[in-house]
């Protein structure tokens, strides 16, 4: 998931970390390795030579006593000598303890690279600019030690910037369902082939596992295959499906499903609709009629994460026609770029509610900014 974007964010962290380290290293005095080597080979002190062979001759017992007092190479006396610390090692320790002040010039090139990386990953321009601005304001003027936490410094700034963007429109789906008068009416909209009907089935299972009773409404009356697909999901999940004939009025189908839910004390109605492009005026007018007649409590836009900026733009235009409550992004497990997941809530002003991460019913993740940022940063 989001492999390309993860690679680009990792590249930014490494680039800025290296820039800070280079700045710190540039302020350390240059060490003369030749002088250090020469000094290391100078004798600690001069050893006096014996005056003559005759004067050095002693009795055997005296010679043994003197030899016992002189440490031999490889003995414990030599092993316990304190290790010598070189000037280079001392300089390295100074670098690790030094503080550096980060200024705009240090960030200019890495931040430009970050913005390009975000745009190449389908992050919308205003979102990319906000992330870059947030990272910049977090780092400029800060004083940091150049030890092993330098990479953590850069990652913390990037993490905070991503969380700031992703946390602007957080929505608790479970609390909404719990506190909304029953039946809760949820309408699903979007373009063709984005996994809308499968997402309805996943949400139905999600609700059923939490103790809610669910009714499905086959509001996509344009395609016989859509009605059959929803019926198949209903059979697998043991849920009631309300349907009309192909070509019927979708608003009437959804209205009947709501009335059935009221009469049988069901908790939630999940209504499918035909896929449509925002450019199709007639179908968008029909969507407005469905909204007027059924008065949904939630209107969820469904699109593919792999559509990138197209998904973001479609969500924006749908929101202008029939204001959405939030978004489900499908196929995020196949999305290498990740830009739509970062951008869509910011651009529409409406939250991401769920992420589809596979084809099976359990492959639905309730959106959590921390969960997503952890994956973007490779954790």
TrEMBL record:
Enzyme Commission numbers on file: 3.6.5.4
Residue numbers binding GTP: 190-197, 272-276, 330-333
Boundaries of every SRP54-type proteins GTP-binding domain copy: 351-364
GO molecular function, one term: GTP binding
InterPro entries: AAA+_ATPase, P-loop_NTPase, Signal_recog_particl_SRP54_hlx, SR_rcpt_FtsY, SRP/SRP_N, SRP54_GTPase_dom, SRP54_N_sf
Residue segments, region Disordered: 36-75
PROSITE patterns assigned to the protein according to its UniProt record, in alphabetical order: SRP54 (PS00300)
Keyword list, A-Z: Cell membrane, Cytoplasm, GTP-binding, Hydrolase, Membrane, Nucleotide-binding, Receptor
Cellular component GO terms, alphabetical: cytoplasm; plasma membrane
Catalyzed reactions per annotation: GTP + H2O = GDP + phosphate + H(+)
Pfam family, one: SRP54
Protein family per UniProt: Belongs to the GTP-binding SRP family. FtsY subfamily.
Stated role: Involved in targeting and insertion of nascent membrane proteins into the cytoplasmic membrane. Acts as a receptor for the complex formed by the signal recognition particle (SRP) and the ribosome-nascent chain (RNC).
Self-association state and partner proteins as the record states: Part of the signal recognition particle protein translocation system, which is composed of SRP and FtsY.
Identification of the protein by name: Signal recognition particle receptor FtsY
Gene behind the chain: ftsY
């Amino acid at each position: 998931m989001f492999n390309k974007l993860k690679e680009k964010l990792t590249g930014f962290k490494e680039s800025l970390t290296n820039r800070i380290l280079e700045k710190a290293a540039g302020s350390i005095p240059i060490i003369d390795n030749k002088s250090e080597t020469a000094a290391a080979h100078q004798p600690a002190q001069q050893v006096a030579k014996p005056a003559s062979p005759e004067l050095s001759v002693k009795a055997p017992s005296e010679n043994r006593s003197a030899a016992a007092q002189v440490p031999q190479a490889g003995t414990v006396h030599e092993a316990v000598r304190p290790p010598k610390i070189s000037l280079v090692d001392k300089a390295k320790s100074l670098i690790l303890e030094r503080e550096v002040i980060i200024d705009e010039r240090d960030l200019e090139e890495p931040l430009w690279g970050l913005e390009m990386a975000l745009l190449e990953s389908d992050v919308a321009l205003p979102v990319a600019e906000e992330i870059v601005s947030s990272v910049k304001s977090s780092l400029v003027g800060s004083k940091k030690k150049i030890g092993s936490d330098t990479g953590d410094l850069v990652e913390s700034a990037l993490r905070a910037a991503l969380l700031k963007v992703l946390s602007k429109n957080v929505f608790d789906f479970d609390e909404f369902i719990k506190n909304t008068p029953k039946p809760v009416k949820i309408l699903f909209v979007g373009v063709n082939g984005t996994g809308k009907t499968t997402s309805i089935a996943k949400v139905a299972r999600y609700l059923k596992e939490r103790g809610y009773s669910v009714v499905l409404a086959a509001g996509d009356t344009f395609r016989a295959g859509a009605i059959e697909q929803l019926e198949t999901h209903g059979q697998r999940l043991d849920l009631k499906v309300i349907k009309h004939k192909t070509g019927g009025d979708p608003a009437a189908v959804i209205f009947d499903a709501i009335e059935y839910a009221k009469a049988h004390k069901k908790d939630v109605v999940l209504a499918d609709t035909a896929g449509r492009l925002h450019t199709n005026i007639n179908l968008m007018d029909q969507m407005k009629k469905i909204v007027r007649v059924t008065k949904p409590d939630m209107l969820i836009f469904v699109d593919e994460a792999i559509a990138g900026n197209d998904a973001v733009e479609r969500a924006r235009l749908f929101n202008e026609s029939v204001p959405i409550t939030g978004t489900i992004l499908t196929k995020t497990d196949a999305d290498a770029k990740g830009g739509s997941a970062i951008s869509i809530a910011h651009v529409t002003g409406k939250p991401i509610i769920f992420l589809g991460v596979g084809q099976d019913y359990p492959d639905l993740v309730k959106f959590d900014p921390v969960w997503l940022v952890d994956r973007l940063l490779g954790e």
